[in-house]
Structure formats: structure tokens, C-alpha cells
Design goal:
Number of helices: 6
Largest sheet: 3 strands, mixed
Number of strands: 15
Order of helices and strands: EHEEEHEEEHEHEEEEEHEHE
Shape: globular
Bound molecules: citrulline
Strand content: 25-35%
Oligomer: single chain
Radius of gyration: 17 Å
Structural class: alpha/beta
Distance between the termini: 5 Å
Length: 252
């Protein structure tokens, strides 16, 4: 499994922030934590490939937002934050080697963090970054391949995947406070520990969940359900409002 990543940019201190107050980010520590994240992926048999650095683009480490990668095609996004649109060409350059490409067109805006694939369902978060037009275009591109696109209202957090991620086929880890969980009908839901609202973002690689070390209570819930969890400290990346899934693009 190929996992695309990108080094933490020197300019990360100027990252976009929506729901968090700005806190100083230690660049050296952020890079070290990011490298450990990459090593964790590599230990789970991922072929980790770094995209070229984009030091002047503060959020370029969050490669997940630039594309929706399906088995049949890759859809380049049109990120909701203007400052992030320049990240797309370098992701397109790499993805064209792996998939046919499609692009979302204005007035659609979408961040990959708002797209959660579970089976053949693409849940699309309607958030400050992602609009209905994007869901409509995604539907037109993905339906011919048998995907169903379902919209989910997101409020109080940045992206759908801040509040819901797949932790086993058909099972989602969720924070109901930030999404309309009724839209997830048909999925088995595990709730985060109430003391850990940001704990719902986990990255499933094979049968192992990569999950932030900051959420031990939620980790215990996952382990009690038989899930294997690799905990990674991403404290600095969390200050930039990023989670575990945001830092890679999985090209199956
Ligand atoms: C942003 O606001 O765009 C970045 N600071 C964080 C993006 C995190 N991406 C994600 O959750 N998929």
C-alpha cells in the first residue's frame, strides 16, 4: 500500500485555524513527530513516499485534503481555504502515475478531510470547507463506479473526519456532538470518550488503527472492542488543527 506524505512546512506557524486558538508550534518537534508517524505507517507495511516539500504553504503537510483517492480514479479537490489551493498541482503530479484523474470545478469547494469512504458509501461532510456543489460533483464522478454519496452536516469541528472515521469495515468511531449521526445509519458506531472530543480521527491500515496518543480513554474503548491500536504522539500537528488521517493519502 502506497502512502503519500509531505514534510511539515517551515511556515506551519501560519497555518489556517478555524476552531482553535493559535498556539506556538515547535517545528523541530512537529517534524520529529511526523517522522515517527511515517515510521509507524512503514512498520504497518506501507510504502511511504514523500511529496516534494512546499515550505511556503503552511498546511501542505495535510495531504489528505488535496484529493479523494478511489480504486478507480483520483479526484483532485478545490480546498475551501484559498491559501490551500496551491497544494493541488504537486499532488496531481504524483497521483497521475497511479490513477486516472478528475478535478472538482468552481463553485465546488471540498477538503479531503470531509470525505469518509466506508464500503461503497462516500460520506461527505458539509462543513465550512465543503459545499453541496462539491457533493453533487463527487456524486456525478463516483456513482458510475457504484459509489453512493451521502451528505452529513458537520458543525463545531473542521472536517467530517475530525468527528468520524472508519475503525473496521462498517464500524465508525464518532463524536456525535459535531455531526448529524443519523446520516450514518447502517453503520455500527463506537463513541469517543466524552473527555476526548478530538479522539474520533483514526487511520485504519490493514487491521491496525493509528490513533493519537492524547486519547487513551478512547483507545481503551477501541481495544476493548478487539482493535489493535498504534498510538502516535502528534501534539504539534494537533495545534494546526490536523489529525492522523490528514497527514497521508492512501493510494491502496
Ligand atoms: C486547515 O485548517 O486546513 C489545516 N490547518 C488543518 C487541516 C487538517 N486536515 C484534515 O483534517 N484533513
Amino acid at each position: 500500500m502506497i502512502c503519500l506524505t509531505r514534510e511539515v512546512s517551515e511556515s506551519i506557524a501560519q497555518c489556517e485555524l478555524t476552531h482553535l486558538d493559535r498556539a506556538p508550534i515547535d517545528l523541530t518537534l512537529a517534524r520529529e513527530q511526523h517522522r515517527r508517524y511515517e515510521e509507524t505507517l512503514a512498520s504497518l507495511s506501507c510504502d511511504v513516499r514523500r511529496l516534494p516539500p512546499l515550505q511556503d504553504l503552511p498546511d501542505a503537510v495535510f495531504v489528505e485534503d488535496a484529493a479523494v483517492v478511489l480504486d478507480e480514479l483520483a479526484i483532485l479537490t478545490r480546498p475551501g481555504a484559498l491559501s490551500r489551493r496551491a497544494e493541488i498541482p504537486s499532488v496531481a503530479e504524483e497521483l497521475r502515475r497511479h490513477r486516472p484523474l478528475a478535478h472538482l470545478e468552481a463553485p465546488a469547494t471540498l477538503d479531503g478531510g470531509d470525505v469518509l469512504l466506508s464500503g461503497r458509501i462516500l460520506f461527505v461532510g458539509l462543513s465550512r470547507r465543503t459545499n453541496r456543489e462539491a457533493a453533487r460533483q463527487l456524486r456525478r464522478l463516483a456513482e458510475p463506479f457504484g459509489y453512493e454519496v451521502r451528505e452529513v452536516e458537520v458543525s463545531g469541528c473542521l472536517h467530517l473526519k475530525t468527528a468520524a472515521s472508519e475503525v473496521a469495515p462498517g464500524t465508525l468511531l464518532v463524536n456525535r456532538a459535531w455531526i448529524d449521526a443519523d446520516a450514518l445509519a447502517g453503520r455500527d458506531l463506537i463513541e469517543v470518550d466524552p473527555a476526548e472530543p478530538f479522539g474520533a480521527n483514526a487511520l485504519l491500515i490493514g487491521k491496525t488503527l493509528v490513533h493519537a496518543a492524547a486519547f487513551p480513554r478512547t483507545r481503551a474503548r477501541l481495544e476493548s472492542r478487539g482493535r489493535a491500536v498504534a498510538a502516535v504522539d502528534v501534539s504539534e500537528i494537533a495545534k494546526a488543527e490536523g489529525g492522523l488521517t490528514c497527514c497521508s493519502l492512501i493510494v491502496g
